Amino acid sequence: MQTTKAWLIGGGVGSLAAAAFMIRDGAIPGENITILEALPLMGGSLDGAGDAVKGYSLRGGRMLTSDNYECTWDLFKSIPSLIRPDRTVFEETMEFNEQHKAHSLARLVDRRRAKVPVESMGFSMEDRLQLLKLCQASEEELGTDRITDWLAPAFFETEFWYMWVTTFAFQPWHSAVEFKRYLLRFALEFTRIETLAGVKRTIYNQYDSLVRPLQTWLAAQGVHLIHDCTVTSIDNADKDGEFTVTGLHCEHAGKPEFIAVSDGDLVFLQNGSMTDASSLGSMTAPPPKLTKANSTGWTLWENLAKGRPKFGRPEVFNSCIAQSCWESFTVTLKTPAFFNAMTEFTGNEPGTGGLVTFKDSNWLMSVVLAAQPHFANQPVGVQVFWGYALLPDRIGNFIPKAMADCSGAEILDELRGHLRFDAGIFAEANCIPCRMPYITSMFMPRARGDRPLPLPPGSKNFAFISQFVEIPEDVVFTVEYSVRAAQTAVYQLLNIERAIPPVTPHARSIKTQLQVLKKAM
Ligand SMILES: Cc1cc2nc3c(=O)[nH]c(=O)nc-3n(C[C@H](O)[C@H](O)[C@H](O)COP(=O)(O)OP(=O)(O)OC[C@H]3O[C@@H](n4cnc5c(N)ncnc54)[C@H](O)[C@@H]3O)c2cc1C
Fold first, then answer.
1. How far is the CA of 13 from the centre of ligand 1 (A)?
2. Residue 70 pLDDT class (50, 70, 90 cuts)
3. Using one digit for the tens of pLDDT, what is the confidence trace for 101-150?
4. Which residues pair with 249 in a beta bridge?
5. What is the number of the ligand 1 atom nearest to the C-alpha of 13?
6. What distance in Å separates the CA atoms of residue 445 and residue 373, rounded to the nearest whole number?
7. Distance 249 CA to ligand 1 centre (A)
């Protein structure tokens, strides 16, 4: 019987996945594993909460694929569905996507409320050459460059740019290295970006469809899931190039606690979170503008990294909210008018269209109508949709205010303006805005070494699991990155010989290359 104990700091999908890999592939008994989460719920950024009375709220709506997400599906092939216990989460998700195939008919809408023809990417010869040059440059050559260092202003007006950035949430000032990684990793999506045909969705929001089944399975294995517990500092022995965690100081339900970490025990840290310091508004108030001062998430990593270059440089990612902030909103509806009007306008039934982006909107706003119900507890007659805007600091086209200063009601007025829908369309609607100051912090320009390896050199019992670790070829801002980081950290610390599913090299397939070339012409 394994006597190793494991402590996981943070309860995001990365930690939940690491616990599952330790049990499934590392033979660690569930009761030896403890997850310590600062918030009242597990799941971290992969949230989804509320009800029809108070209104539902999601910080994000996730697009997945089955051509990538190798580690994610490797995990969820072992996790039973909560809806059909004879199925795994992987199977139920794939069956759902067979029935709800994505094929957007209204990917971009312009200022005239016209659906923009998007069969062509809108590239000039210069755009194609610059894109090719960027894709062929090594990560060393790209260094800490921004996307704007490699692509001329005209590129940022192409249909491709509007579709790509609103699918993946890039900004022109973000990392050229990460942009290149995305182009290669999602080469297949390049060939179908205008219809989003490669996108896979979960049955409900990802809290109900991914977090709850995983958490239920972990609890059944005996894993200790501790909420309201912030780890405030880490005791360690650090000498002769060897780093060992010896204890954890926590604030649990308002009281200080100490966890002694014995010889042979393991500690995993979720260093940094894209939803740190996020805040919710309401129909009548904008979300409060929180900053790092309101968060505990970054501090632990910052303190550990002081004087230890191998633990990375958090300040590269969390020092400029103006470059990493955007805002999303979740709308709960009690009348079908908006869904009916959108179905008629787009030609897509809910759950088949994906993002509709108002490409000329000052806020660069998009909405998604998922298949209903989108929450497991959503009553019949209630509908929920999600939207977001990449430029919340700009004045709206219909509301003379920055989105960041708008209430939910004002955001709905702006949306209604772009769609030219009548005022009554949002009768009884409840729109909950969500500000996320660090949502694209992972995309900030970085150099090698700014992110620690999941298992840094010399670390005896301590690993990082997050969006802020270095994994070759894979891309951040995905569930896959967190799960891959978890699998890598667990396998390396426990010396597990089972192979980690490799990143599928779509960009190296001749067939895909030909498709990409055809699409780019
Ligand atoms: C708006 C939005 C849209 C997205 N769209 C997509 C998409 O389309 N496709 C896709 O694949 N992914 C998408 N993602 C990304 C995906 O949701 C994340 O990559 C993933 O959920 C991150 O998980 P994580 O476990 O690494 O980190 P997190 O979920 O951020 O979890 C970290 C946790 O650690 C806790 N924590 C931190 N410090 C401490 C401490 N000291 N003590 C205790 N607890 C601590 C935090 O409270 C948090 O709960 C999206 C995310 C958002 C927010």
1. 7
2. very high
3. 999 999 999 999 999 999 889 999 999 999 999 999 999 999 999 999 99
4. 233, 258
5. 25
6. 39
7. 22
